[in-house]
Design goal:
This protein is of the alpha+beta class. It contains two helices and eleven strands, in the order E-E-E-E-H-E-E-E-E-E-E-H-E.
């Protein structure tokens, strides 16, 4: 398995009770993703090393999936059938934010992206990915 750890945020009041699981199984990872609820559980991170990881945020049917292999270039999973100019509110990492609707994906593509990353360390080519320009610096 490519991923070496799983980080799960759980917010109780204003405190993060972060759980780090070393050498997680796919069942642990899938359970953590399915438990995201958009309230107190809003972020799961699948780490390979300090620079290579996938983050899955949100929950309750809407997820934002990002990945990086160098902690500089970030890729985001997108649904090209959704409009680019429509905004959806989503809580990620206990912070409510406005996200382009096409960045908010359903559970199935989220799980497929995670499974491929966990097993191979790659972005699933059956899914649509875009470079996240909002994180690019000049």
């Amino acid at each position: 398995m490519f991923v070496s750890n799983l980080s799960v945020e759980q917010w109780i009041d204003n405190f993060n009770q972060d759980e780090l699981i070393e050498k997680p199984t796919w069942n642990q990872i899938e359970t953590a993703i399915r438990e995201l609820n958009g309230k107190n559980k809003t972020l799961v991170t699948l780490g390979a090393d300090d620079e290579t990881y996938m983050s899955i945020g949100g929950g309750a049917g809407k997820y934002v999936v990002t990945a990086t292999f160098d902690n500089f270039d970030f890729y985001i999973l997108v649904n090209l059938l959704k409009p680019d100019d429509q905004i959806e509110k989503l809580v990620v990492g206990a912070q409510e934010g406005n996200y382009s609707a096409k960045m908010c994906v359903d559970l199935l593509p989220c799980l497929l992206a995670a499974r491929t990353f966990v097993e191979s360390g790659k972005l699933d080519t059956l899914l649509s990915w875009e470079e996240d320009k909002s994180l690019v610096t000049a």
